[in-house]
# Entry
Amino acid sequence: MEGSEELESSLLTQPWASVCFGESTFLAKTCFRDTGYILLISDLSSVWYESADAEAVGQRTKELNKRLTVQVSSFLHRLCNLMRLLLEGEPDTATSFSCHHAAGGLSLHVKSEISGLPIYWAFHCCPAPVEMVSRHLVRPLIRMSLVLQYQVQELSSLLLQKDAEIEDYRESGATLSRDRLRTEPFQEETFQQNFMAESLSRICGAGEGQVFASALQQLYAAVTQQEAKQARKRQCSEDIEGPAPAAETTGHTHPPSPSQEDETASSSKGTTPASSPAQKPRLPAAKAKPKKAKGLFS
# Structure
């Protein structure tokens, strides 16, 4: 049976999606299994979550749907489809969602139907722990920013190479057939200054709910998949190494016998025990920073 930790690990690689409840915009992600579900939702001021196993889902289903008799796995499958459509921006027309702030938490109410019968559900979310917020938001966003930074550097180098190629054509006597295609040589510093002055305010004012729009969802999934892969490698390495031998981690629980004392004393006369220095943790080798192509035009 898949535990809550494995369920959250599966949730990690699910991208965030923008959802609206009334006039409020949220970011949300879910993961459903036959054994239960986990929901993570944020308004970018707070983050809430709920993790429920099959037993809890069955009990709440009976409380909210007195006239409904359905298997828990079927009900979970229905909830999964409803949430999937919501996160994809195409909610079921026969389904309504409402969000309510409760004391210290958030409740998401769902009303839909199965075979013509109305069904009700409520996600009761509590504040997410700091580690969960860091794992699903902070660390992926930092890694995404680094990936995008390297991507910009690669594109800048490519543009400089293209400018050098174009200049070579010009020096060889080639001319443009359409003058409107002419471009100025790329200057990275000038581009960055113009971008910050002209585009930054427009992008930042696009709305908080669009943080993970379009291609950024794919980038988030790729980054979190790498993190999950590295976590599995670390776990396998720890399993292979195993715990340290007892002789290395524990001292003598009984005093040595007299014969052992004599042997120790005689051996210590000729040699001086050397203390083994503590082994320093190895740091990952730093990768060489890709060199930027120098500007060809001043």
Remarks:
- Strands lie at 17-21, 24-33, 36-42, 47-53, 96-102, 105-114, 117-127.
- The first strand starts at residue 17 and ends at 21.
